[in-house]
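Make up an example, fold above all:
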Amino acid sequence: MSNLAQTLKTRIQQAIPGAQVHIDDPDGAHLSATITSAAFAGKSRIQQHQMVYAALGNAFETDLHALQLTTKAE
C-alpha cells in the first residue's frame, strides 16, 4: 500500500470510527476505496460520500486527483 493510500485510510478511520476501510492502489495512481460503516445507516449514498470527502479534507487539493468510492452501511 502506498503512503497516500495509507494516509487516506487513516483519515477515514479517524473521522468515521469503526469503519472498515479497504483501499486498492494497484499502480499508485488509480485508487479505489470501499468503506463499510454503521454510521452510514439511514443515509443516502450522497450523504455517505460527503462523510468520506469530509474525512479526506484537502487531499483532493494536494495529493489526490480521483478516487473511485464505494460505501456500504453495516
